Amino acid sequence: MRKQQKHEGPTGAIVSGTPVYGSPVIGSPVVTGSPAATAKLSSDLGTAAPEDDAPAATPTRELPSAPPLYEASAPPYAGSPPAAYASSVLHIDREAVAGPPAAKKPHIKLQNRKCQDIVFLILFIAFGIGFMIESSFGFNKGEPRRLVYGLDYLGNTCGDKKASVNLESFDVRYWQNPNQVYKSGVLSNPFNLGDARSICLQDCPIPNPTNLTWVCDYPQGPINLTMADWASRNYDYFDLLTPTQKNSSTNLTGPCYPVLFQSENFFWSCQLEASPSNETLKLWTDIGGVSINSGNVIVQVVQKALSEPTTVVKRYVADLGRAWPVLVVCGGIAPLLLSVTWLIVVRYFAGTITWLTVILLNIFMLLVTVFFYIKAGWIGKDAVLVVVGSGATNALSASTSEQNHLKIVAVIMTILVVVVVLITLVMLKRVVIAVAVIKVAGKAIGAIPSLIIYPIIPFIIVAVFLIYWVAALLYLASAGSVVQNTCNNSCAAYDLQLQAITENNCCGYSLHHSKNIAWAIVYHIFGMFWITQFINACCLTTIAGAIAAYYWARGETMELGWAPVLSSAKRVVHYSLGSMALGSLLVASIEMVRFIMEFIQKRLKLLEMAPGGCCLSILFCCAQCCLGCIEWTIKFINRNAYIVIATSGKGFCRAAGKATELIVTNILRVGAVNIIGDLILFLGKVCVSLACALFSFLMLDTHKYKDGHSQVSSPLFPVLFCWGIGYITAGIFFAVVEMAIDTILLSFCIDAEEHNGNAMFAPPLLTDTLSSHARCQEAAEAARVLKKQQRVASRK
């Protein structure tokens, strides 16, 4: 038998040197040539060899060997009728014409790659350097205690052991002069509450109805007491004062001030009651004290100061620092364990876990909504005792504004519950399709077990980054200069150092932020968006590279190498970091615009309440809706672009164009299946995040976070933070299945495009699912056309 010549054939037509049965590619090489070769082929196929006088078969070329990536462990025609296979081979051979066909590029380009989008990688590195600089500035200049505990009459932060006096255990602010508090509430008076004399105590003082008590300034000058002695005397050293100092104290100019009003610790500030008791007031007048102003103005001015939007935001941000164990458990460990468990279970019980996800989502949505109703005060003890237990019905010591915020969130959650229930009812018939697609993704994950463990790496990176980001945000928000206010000689106080009454140093202190700090905070927020999206992009592209290798190897694990995930990650780091930076920059920009729009809307809230303000509200809602659609579209295009980048090494723009072309071309074939699968996974992520929110509610409802140094002003912000971090964490792990589905479907489109509409490498389960879905669509379309024709005929 003469030696045959080897020629390259079209990509996908040959697997392990064997012709693919049923391949529609015209001109594919086949194994024939001489009568002996034909006889050997017939013998292999179990058919009779042609007689000697029969015309010899047309000489053709020998099969070339395909690249190792496409090799399969079994011939693609296994199980096909041998005669049919031979007929197909001879038919394709007769169709072959002179000249070798043009060779196609490999499906996963491993050689001749080059670095893409380098400019954006340089921009990202420069941005990262700036991010570190502004964070370092915050750590150097900031003091997070300022966000909550306030400043005393010396400009010290309550609870700061590094202050001019050691205030480590003195973290409650108390206003000493009730007349100054009253004066700050009079609209015609320019005096502000920030200028009223305040001091840091361990707890709010209690008036004595039988013996007048005092709160004196920190022991300084001639007062020879330590801070511990001062605290043990209940802040009272009136008996140590000189007659002049006592006379000054009865005039409410210090250094001691009477405790006349009952007060209560309200967010680490002592909230005075509207009027003093008759007993203490009589004790005060008996020693010749000046007249005391009282009334609801005192209560209102303190509540107003503690309920201002900036104060509330600072208090909410500070809650994150005090509730850090909750954030670690419910925002880190819980979503990690739930997500890994979900990935392991979906590998073996795809159908069960899909239905369980849908059911648990509705349950968790309902439970979280009930908890918000409890905290908002809309549900009493008897209504929820059998659901959440007696411990959840304890009243939350929050102000009216905090309760209003909880009520708003409760209403939003109610709307979301209704929407989720409706979506669940609509999706019931389509979940079967999602189950089949998830099963295919589960097989791919099972073939590459390292995909289950791999998300832990980006999870750790994201967790460390977010911890650093939150800490830097706390320090940035509290950075600035502590400056004494100007009172225009509207106050006077006794100075123990000078041993005289002075009008120069009696004003309060406030924290002043420069414009540079404001811009640094904006830069910091954008950094969170861009860096997290960059990490997410690298993670998605790595997963896509491993899954694509699985698809084009026909699931043959021997051809994937010992570490397909590591190989894919090396290609991403070596060639495609610039593309990751560009793709993540687009998403981060849209997210930042949405954040700024939301901030502007809150700043213009008063205008929305004015006549005609509804038009402004509608405008903001429309803008947010449009931006949300744009963000979803960009994320969808990015995800598919990352798949093309992982397989071909293209730049971001070219990859996005190619991915969009494939999706548009095959929208009817795989679009609905992709959307249904992604929707199920989205529900799974929401389910995990809601579980984290529920766990955080339960932890914050314990005694530890209701009083003492770990007390939180409201559970709202820690719960929402755990919800958001839980969703991000779940998204990292669920991205494995999500990208497996998207990569397999996009590879299916590439496969079909290269083989004239027939995907030669697709798993049978995927082919059957898509075919069944297509038949259902065709039947539904035919039924609609028939009904339309019947209506037209009935009119005639």
TrEMBL record:
Chain intervals for the UniProt region annotation (Disordered): 1-22, 41-72
Protein's membrane topology: Multi-pass membrane protein
Compartment annotation: Cell membrane; Membrane
Transmembrane spans: 118-139, 324-346, 352-374, 408-432, 452-476, 521-552, 572-597, 679-700, 716-737
Broad class of the protein's primary localization: membrane
Top-level taxon of origin: Eukaryota
Keywords: Glycoprotein, Membrane, Transmembrane, Transmembrane helix
Alphabetized InterPro entries for the sequence: Choline_transptr-like (IPR007603)
Annotated Pfam families: Choline_transpo
Homology family: Belongs to the CTL (choline transporter-like) family.
Function, as annotated: Choline transporter.
Full protein name: Choline transporter-like protein
